[in-house]
Amino acid sequence: MPLLAGARQRWPVAALILLGLQVALLGWHLHGEVLDLSRRLIQGTWGEAVRAENPFYCWLMNLKKVIPEQATYVFLDHYELGKEIEARYHLFPRRHLLLVPESPPSLLFYTLRQYGVTHILVREGQKPPGPGLLALLESGAAEPLPVPGPGLAFRVDLRRIKGAFYD
Amino acid sequence: MIEGVGLLLRLLLGLGVLLISGYALARSLAPASRRLEQAALALGLGSLSLTLWLLALAALCLPWRLTLILPLPLALMAASWVGRRFFSGTCMVEGFPPWINAPKPSGSIPLKGWDWVFLGVIGLILLFATLRALLYPIWAWDAVSTWGFKAKVFFLRGTLDLQGFEAHNYYPNLVPLLLTYLYICLGQVNDQVVKIVFPLAGLSLILLVFALLRRLGLSRRGALGITAFFTAGGVTLVEHLHIAYADLFLTYYTLGAGGLVYLWLKEVSLSGNLSLAAFFLAGLSWTKFEGTPMAGTVLLAAALSLLWLHPPGLARRLWSLSVPGLGLLLGYLPWRLFIWSHGIEMGTDHILGFYPHQFFQAVPALLEALVNPRNFGFLWPLAALALVVCRKKWVTTPLLYLPLFLGGNFLAILLAYAVAPTAPFEFPLYVRATLDRLLLHLAPVAVLLLGEGVKELEKGPEGLSGPVSLSSQDSGSFRE
């Protein structure tokens, strides 16, 4: 096998070239992260400072101050966006329930009553409320909380949810 | 400032206990092995024993206080010391090449030239990963939703309590409990500093790759070069060195289990090798849900290799595989018993039916992931080339085990995609999000195959064809 015999003679050089190529490729793929890391090292902006740059995280920290630890909240968002897992992580031990923002009144009202929900969080405060939240606001059972941030927060008065409604 | 120093000391103490107890266990199980090998195994053994101990305490409704947690690792250290003090020199392996039982070399050849280049590549990548892990809080999806979240919950609740949330609650808990243990040592949730265990697991993995390559008979420079090649092979490994997923630990345990069983098949292992493999199979099963079937493939590939090669004492050797088999049960049964006794619902989110079209859709994705240098560099194409180089050996020697294990797992990956309940538009995204980490679990075993190929190339032309006897193939370069 002349091919393999030739390979046997030249393989160390080929292997070093491949290693060099790999290192170069890795550097190219990671250069953004390396630059960010270097910048943070120089500026001293690591750890909590990384999180503090995220308005969503700051909003969650503000919510921690107003939602009691034993409370249950409904988070209105889509799972795929990955924000509700952040909310659950940072707001624990508060009990977390997820519903999509488009949830109809029947589902939202049932969830509120069934699980004794005291707070509702909406990640996207700019968007118009979904049908469930709209019905809840019209019923007067939810009161907005003045928490600065990208989302909206409401305190729920379960006594004012009577039922007797249709989607 | 003082608080920061205190935090660091507590972290170092926690890690120290973990590593020293694992090191002690490695020394007890394989006393004739090298310090480097024992160091490579320390994190795996320490993490396994400590997290199983936390599970036992939770099952017995005992609180997770350091006064109850630490007696186990301290007992392991004491047992190792007593064992070495009173039973040293009784662990020679009969019938093995003399270098296996020989005392460790007293002096070592100094590093020079390319050795430093290879070490520099490995060191730089580990430095980047360590800084990336320590300076950034937990942020990656599975870390926030599953592993890190459970660790935080367990610490705040003071026990293994999975009520009131859904985070794949039936998944094994080695990684969450390891983080919980560090939180207990720190006395607080600090998801920044505990991430140090991930670069540490990466270092252990890299040490293990190097140690196994040396055991396979590669020269120090050859083994270092291949280890550097693996470490710099694409972004998948580097990402997993800091994103706080369980996949890095699964990769480490896969290499430990698969590599040690391979050494045993090749009869170049130390006494206690199968016991060590048993602990690593336990780690596989206790780290992730897919760890148990993967542990099964380690044993199946070993059994099939033995049946095909039909070595002398076949029945005895097949029976010996019951030792790692027991290890698998050690990692699997305690958690299953806990699940059963606590009424934890077993999820079926990954298995809801069989969709053959997904099997065929996954084939090109798998091939693309294997050759795309972004994921693993040139590792997989070169591992395939190594198979060609060793083409005559892998049907006549234990080398057969490596392609059997890898091929079996490729098939298992495709089958896993065929049973995944995803919508048609979602399937390519699902594959893209999971395939690199599934291949990461197997990558270090492919490195062993690459090592075998390099060893063949290091020999003369006769090494490129025909079977080579064990004694001639392994002893020379190891004793360099």
Could you please describe the fold and organization of this structure?
The complex is a heterodimer of chains A (167) and B (480). With 167 residues, chain A is α/β, with parallel strands linked by helices. Chain A has two domains: 10-50, no CATH class; 54-156, no CATH class. Chain A is 53% helix and 13% strand. Chain A contains six helices and five strands; from the N terminus they run H-H-H-E-H-E-H-E-H-E-E. Chain A has helices at residues 2-43, 48-52, 55-66, 83-91, 105-115, 131-139, and strands spanning 72-76, 95-99, 119-122, 142-144, 152-156. In chain A, helix 3 (55-66) packs parallel to helix 4 (83-91) and helix 5 crosses helix 6. Chain A is elongated, with a radius of gyration of 26 Å. Chain B is mainly α. Chain B has one domain (2-86, 116-464). Helix content of chain B is 70%, strand content 0%. Chain B contains 22 helices and no strands. The longest helix of chain B is centred in the C-terminal third of the chain and has 32 residues, at 427-458. Chain B is globular.
